[in-house]
Amino acid sequence: xxxxxxxxxxxxxxxxxxxxxxxxxxxxxxxxxxxxxxxxxxxxxxxxxxxxxxxxxxxxxxxxxxxxxxxxxxxxxxxxxxxxxxxxxxxxxxxxxxxxxxxxxxxxxxxxxxxxxxxxxxxxxxxxxxxxxxxxxxxxxxxxxxxxxxxxxxxxxxxxxxxxxxxxxxxxxxxxxxxxxxxxxxxxxxxxxxxxxxxxxxxxxxxxxxxxxxxxxxxxxxxxxxxxxxxxxxxxxxxxxxxxxxxxxxxxxxxxxxxxx
Length: 261
Fold this sequence. Notes:
Elements: E1 2-6, H1 19-25, E2 30-33, H2 44-56, E3 60-65, H3 85-102, E4 106-108, H4 120-139, E5 144-147, H5 161-171, E6 176-181, H6 182-187, H7 192-199, E7 203-208, H8 224-233, E8 239-242
Parallel strand pairs: 1-2, 1-8, 2-3, 3-4, 4-5, 5-6, 6-7, 7-8
Keywords: Isomerase
Domain Xylose isomerase-like TIM barrel: 21-258
Family: Belongs to the hyi family.
């Protein structure tokens, strides 16, 4: 397995621009982030500072989220959000530019919450059209989109792998795949092992955290070893992102990886 560390949830003891170097010191060669800016259209100097922080640490950018709205307030993406197309388009353009410089070929396109007073069917039709358009856009650099089921946000409609695959199959793009986050699936009662066994070819990215707690593997009850073995046996060759809240200091949370890399 190739592991990367998500620097939007790990090494938060440090400023964002110092985290890639900390990940390098911990032995990683690849990182991933949620959208690393406060707005969909950050200033050029902000983008440049972010790129330099990753490049100067010698890191590959394994995965990057598009702008997802106000995450702290509960927003979870703009793909299905009618009326915010310009913000999404701006962040896609910026993300593609970052990716071309840092080697990223996976983008997480969070679907978006159900909106009060908006017909869910209209949101879903909008999402299908948006995903088709954005998938075509990122295909120009040989990249893929991944669609992620989430937990803990009642208004987010993609809760299981089957929910995400239903959208993926409707869009029908070769570069649209599942983001298999074993924590979110487990919390929602889904069976990650069955997904790996049955639809491994449709998995475009993997993220790990144990449950309950969303801490590092070994702190909960999930069969992380079994998931990793299943992925290897199925021929998964992508990155496995470490997207957990460390139980202690970030740099001390990687003991479970000993002998794996």
